[in-house]
Design brief:
The protein has about 300 residues and is an alpha/beta fold. It is built from 9 helices and 8 strands. Helix content is about 30%, strand content about 15%.
Length: about 300
């Protein structure tokens, strides 16, 4: 996931179904969702981690007691929590800076963002707790290392095909962190030949689609999300632990949309970031390397 609530908003009730079936579940969050608040001086990012732990404990029907572990992959440290009574449920946090909806990043963290890393505008990105610094290559390798460590059979992530980034109230736009984090999970998972494949779920734009959850599913989804909100020390205008959720959030409570899988065909562009200076062109024989690039989201090479 990109942020600590994306799974609750966009993948549920699928997450609840997996927990009920007692499937091993390793959830990875790339950014801290800090929204520009300083990690060491504001409780906001830390409370989002506590909030999502509370939500998973509620879905599992257990207390919030966790076992904390620092996982090291290729020299990078990732803080990880597993539920004490359901140790097969693990939440891990890379704590990279929130890129903000359009990917511009915040001055608190030198305007670093996943989108800028993906576009090559910065060479590396630093965790908000200063524990690790990642190049694009090392970030992908670390995600893949976790998947190998946990013997992952399937990756569920956000929409890696949407190329329009912006705020939730901009029609058709998705948060830049959603799209780029999903591309990095896809790029990490593609060479692993996962038995269950990689499944993408629509983010912000699913509010434009018809409601497709049963009333009881929507109620349960909202209850879990409110558990998260009550734990998070919300800062206006993002959310409030004492006020009803906003209209856009209510729309997400009634929907869950896996993105239909697109397949690479001659002349088809898949997973671009929608910037006019980027182009994708092929002539003649398509090598295996080019095929992998075209389906994993790199569109910065031109002919």
């Amino acid at each position: 996931m990109a942020h600590e609530d994306d799974d609750l908003l966009f993948l549920n009730p699928q997450i609840q179904e997996l927990i009920t079936a007692r499937c091993p579940l390793d959830v990875v969050y790339l950014t801290s969702g800090d929204a520009g608040h300083p990690y060491n001086r504001s409780p906001y990012a830390k409370s989002r981690e506590l909030g999502v732990i509370a939500a998973y404990a509620a879905m599992a029907g257990t207390g919030q007691h966790t076992v904390t572990e620092t996982i090291t992959v290729d020299g990078h440290n990732i803080t990880s929590f597993s539920l004490r009574k359901r140790p097969e449920i693990r939440l891990s946090f890379f704590r990279l800076p929130d890129g903000l909806p359009t990917g511009k990043g915040d001055s608190t963290y030198r305007h670093e963002s996943l989108l800028k890393l993906f576009r090559g505008e910065i060479s590396s990105i630093t965790a908000v707790d200063s524990t690790s610094r990642y190049t694009e290559q090392s970030l992908i390798a670390t995600i893949a290392g976790l998947a190998r460590r946990w013997k992952s059979e399937r990756i569920r992530t956000l929409d890696f095909d949407n190329s329009f980034f912006g705020h939730a109230y901009t029609q058709g736009a998705d948060h830049s962190d959603h799209g780029v984090a999903a591309r990095y999970f896809r790029m990490a998972g593609f060479p692993l030949h996962l038995r269950g494949g990689i499944i993408a779920y629509r983010g912000y734009p699913m509010s434009l689609l018809p409601e497709n959850l049963l009333a009881e599913q929507a109620r349960a989804k909202q209850q879990i999300f409110e558990t998260y909100l009550h734990t998070v020390r919300c800062l206006a205008p993002h959310c409030s632990a004492t006020r009803p959720i906003t209209a856009i959030y209510r729309k997400w409570m009634h929907r869950q949309y896996p993105r239909p899988q697109q397949h690479a065909r001659p002349g088809t562009v898949i997973s671009t970031t929608g910037s006019p200076q980027f182009c994708l062109g092929l002539t003649g024989f398509v090598s295996e390397t080019q095929h992998r690039l075209s389906v994993s989201g790199d569109s910065t090479w031109c002919h």
